[in-house]
Amino acid sequence: MFRGGRLTNAELNEAARHYDGPYRPYDIVKEVSVATGVVMLIAVILTILFSSPDLPPSTIASWSRSMPTDFVTTALSELDGTSETATYGPPYNHESGSVQQLAFIHLQQWLGVSHPVNAEYDLIIAPLRTIPDAPALQAAVTTYVHAPAKTQAAWTNAYSNALGKATEKQGGAVTVPAGSYGPVGPMMSSLLALAESGGLDGDLLTSKQFYQTDYTKPLLFLEDGSALDDRATYQHLQGTQWGMMNETGSYPGQVWLWLYTFWYQVQIGGLSTSPNVDAIVMAIMGVLSAAFILVPFLPGIRSIPRRIPVYKLIWRDWYSATGAPSKPPRTGDDAPALPSLRPTET
After folding, report:
1. Which domain, by its residues, includes 204?
2. Helical ranges in 235-345 per DSSP H
3. Using CA atoms, how far apart are residues 256 and 244, in angstroms rounded to an integer?
4. Average pLDDT value for the chain
5. This prediction's pTM
6. Same domain, 112 and 212
7. Could you tell me which of 59, 67, 61 has the C-alpha nearest to residue 198?
């Protein structure tokens, strides 16, 4: 008996005991096991056929050996505070070189400095302090650290100008003409030797965490130089090359990201070259995503599937078998009120 249009639990149990229809065995454990096995097999096969190539990683050691002058030039920019990392802003420091904003939205300032990196100390001074049995070097580092800012700037500017005439010798050494560089000369030479030995990679990975897997500092150092940028260009991973959806080598990439990376190619209004392009693209994708999610609630748009008769192809067998009209009852914006289908009480 219906109670307000619903069956009670007792009535449902009674109906189940008197079920006279057919039964068929069903082993849910078997089904799950078979499905899991098939999916795992497919995943293994696809991994073998289409996995990412195991290319050697870019390291500070390989960069300093192949491009020693570029490494020293980048290290000097870290030391004098002119590198991209030193001037980036949140989440690394309180500068504003790469801070993006959109109208009243200032996400970087709101989130603040969550991963502090002092380019001068963390990338240059601290690694030099780890070099043992080098009293002359440690004296040079101390001299630089305690010198007035104006004197430090004079040393680094002089050395920067000299790097334009630098020569690379066999073994990876960089030689500059004689000049008034103060302690900067021996500091840069020692840092280059440390980098070429692979020691700088290890120093920049050292942290207070149990697992030494934070690659933020070495990656920031690499990004400030030319090696990583040149490799990205060669492997078609730059933003202007649709790099967000590409993969190293001739392997399938993240093709589902085409719409996101599309906006970085738009030249209209200077979008692709705007200093706030990341924030703008995030806003565009946010609006598009919200519109997609809200399709069932947007008048007019929610009726598009009914107005485009794709359903006739999908349900053609059902329409043919039942003899039902090919046009479904009106739904959505212009649908008339439907009579109540709730059963009456007895």
Report:
1. 60-230
2. 258-262, 277-293, 304-307, 310-314, 316-322
3. 10
4. 87
5. 0.75
6. yes
7. 61
Same domain, 207 and 74: yes
344 or 325, which is more confident: 325
Domain for residue 321, yes or no?
A: no
pLDDT-derived band at 219 (thresholds 50, 70, 90) equals very high
224, 240: one domain: no
Do residues 192 and 173 lie in contact, with contact meaning Cβ atoms separated by under 8 Å? Answer: yes
**In terms of domains, do 36 and 184 share one?**
no
For the chain, how many structural domains are there in total?
A: 3
Could you tell me if 215 and 178 lie in one domain? yes
Measured at the CA of 120, the angle between CA 117 and CA 124, to 5 degrees, comes to: 105
Alpha carbon 11 to chain centroid distance? 56
337 has a pLDDT exceeding 50 = no
What is the per-residue pLDDT across 272-316, written as a single tens digit (0 to 9) for each? 889 999 999 999 999 999 999 998 898 888 888 888 888 888 888
